[in-house]
Amino acid sequence: MSFDEPAWWYGPKEAARVRLLAPLSRIWQKVAERRWRRATPYQSARPVICIGNFTAGGTGKTPLAASICDVLRQLGKTPIVLTRGYGGKISGPHWVDPRRDTARDVGDEPLWHAERGPVVIARNRAEGAAFIEARGAASDVIVMDDGLQNPTLAKDLTIAVVDARRGLGNGHVMPAGPLRAELEFQLGLVDAIVVVGAAGAPRSIDTVGEALRGRFDGPVLDASVVPVGPLDWLTQSPLVAWAGIANPRRFFDLLAANGATVAREISFPDHHMPSAAQAASLLHEARLHQAMLVTTRKDAVRVRGAPGDVGALGAASRTIDIGLTFADRDGERLTALLARALRER
After folding, report:
1. Is 194 left (phi over 0), alpha (psi -120 to 50) or beta?
2. How far is CA 265 from CA 32, 35, 245, 333, in A?
3. Which segments within the chain are labelled E, that is strand?
4. Over the stretch 207-222, which tens digit does the pLDDT of each residue have?
């Protein structure tokens, strides 16, 4: 769990601070509903597939967006990721160039996506969609990485991602809990749900997925986070693992599940750029433990090309990229959902 997610969000529902913050949660919900009622969404000339979260924090949304892009390519389309570029200074619309742009310019997730295909960042999603349309390619499909709660752009298919381990927390709306709006309200915005768990987790304890199936009429698909590429190097020496993502525990557990000996685990807040002192400390930890530094691909692109110890940290750190694998025939069901959305357009 990252430092900017309170642990008590995932504790008892009737904790004292939850009751204290409940009035603010009701205001948050009213603002969210009013925003939707007053919005006039832009109808793009291109299909729009949206992937988002019911809750704040990491759920596996970005790997799912990448998986959906892969499926769209198999269907003969050209997926273009549209994201707000959180953490970057460029407001857009802007085509991301991984050879020139840095995380300080566009954010880390856009750079992660841009290693795979075209990406546009735009704070205003409607302007971003129009910017993509101006390209004039009829095969383009807009894939919104985040945006479930954004009413400014009409969507052809909306998929919510839920972390199987943390679920929906205490079930309260921010700031009393992790929900971005009341669950029933958000369920009305989505066409499908993907529950993302750890590889090898038993299906019998899939309480989150079962609970959602009892409240949602659409498809609820099961997926697992899996490493991409060879991992035999993980067992060759001790590791100092560091991550500045929303759910670093999932990354650390992935290392352990693949036989790694982790001497130290260091977590930073989501999207965090290590300072020179923090980078120097990590480099020192690796020397102290005679260990290899390892991080996520998203963290690696964030520090790429940085000066001094931060750049040295990036150069010294090996990376693990992650993807999703779907349970049973749920991958086929996802492909069918995408194909149907494209046909209906």
Report:
1. beta
2. 37, 41, 13, 37
3. 48-53, 78-83, 94-95, 119-121, 140-145, 157-163, 192-198, 220-228, 239-243, 262-267, 292-296, 317-326
4. 888 889 889 999 999 9
pLDDT in tens, 114-172: 999 999 999 999 999 999 999 989 999 999 998 899 999 999 999 999 998 888 988 89
Query: What token pair was written down for 258?
Result: 């693949």
Selection from 58, 49, 115 nearest residue 82 by Cα: 49
Confidence (pTM):
0.88
> What is the rounded average pLDDT of the residues 44-65?
91
Distance CA 266, CA 319 (A): 15
- Residue-wise pLDDT for 67-116, tens only, equals 999 999 999 999 999 999 888 899 989 999 998 998 889 989 999 999 99
| Contact indicator for 140, 78 with CB cutoff of 8 Å | yes
Cα separation, 61 vs 68, whole angstroms = 11
Query: What separation in angstroms does the CA of 63 have from each of 121, 145, 237?
Result: 18, 10, 28
Question: How confident is the model at residue 40, as a pLDDT?
Answer: 93
Q: How far apart are CA 276 and CA 314, in angstroms?
A: 12
